[in-house]
Amino acid sequence: MRALLDQQPDIVVIGYASGTDSEAAAADSTPDVTVVVAPALTMENERELAALAALTKVIHITRAESVSRSIEVLRLGVRAVLAPDTSADELIHVLRTVSVGSTMVIPEAARRSLDHLPRRQASALAASVVPSLTPRETEVIVLLTQGKSNAEIAEKLSISTATVRSHVHHLLRKLGVGSRAQAVAVAYETGLMAAIERNSKDSGRS
């Protein structure tokens, strides 16, 4: 991975560490982005990831089928979750995108499975939030779950990035979260995305 990244003129690899050394390394070198390769997520890993996410933007590489883990790391503040078989071009694109903005990314395979997560305590939130969303906010949250950046959302919806930021701000407030990654986690955990999809289908039939 380092050899690959070293070939990119706009990416500088400043070091690597493992285990508990990673937080100290991030604090010392203050990287724009930290890539964490982790096949599992233990309680200790959670503490490390949360600490890292407070210091730098974190990209977490883990198995795409670990759907619940994808949600967990998003809640911890991780900006992107990628599968181990992510292509070199995609990794570089995500690195650049995450480094310059507040976007977040999760694997397509994980997104397809997220609607099947248990939603024991959140249906009430979904029921209360969906009616409060404007049509544009609904479009924005759907694009956020696809990992789109503000610029990509603006282009897709033919609006300004400032308008996108305003919509994202309102969404975060309505969902009671502090980051877009947490907003996506809540949207899936609560069944909000499933409710939006049902509303869309119902509207299409009427």
TrEMBL record:
Residues annotated as domain HTH luxR-type: 126-191
Gene3D superfamilies xref list: 3.40.50.2300
PROSITE patterns cross-referenced by the UniProt entry: HTH_LUXR_1, HTH_LUXR_2
SUPFAM superfamilies: C-terminal effector domain of the bipartite response regulators
UniProt record, GO biological process: regulation of DNA-templated transcription
Keyword rRNA processing found: no
Entry-linked InterPro entries: Sig_transdc_resp-reg_C-effctor (IPR016032), Tscrpt_reg_LuxR_C (IPR000792)
Keyword RNA-binding: no
Keywords: DNA-binding, Transcription, Transcription regulation
Domain of life: Bacteria
GO terms assigned for molecular function: DNA binding
Name the UniProt record assigns to this protein: DNA-binding response regulator
The organism of origin for this protein: Streptomyces paludis
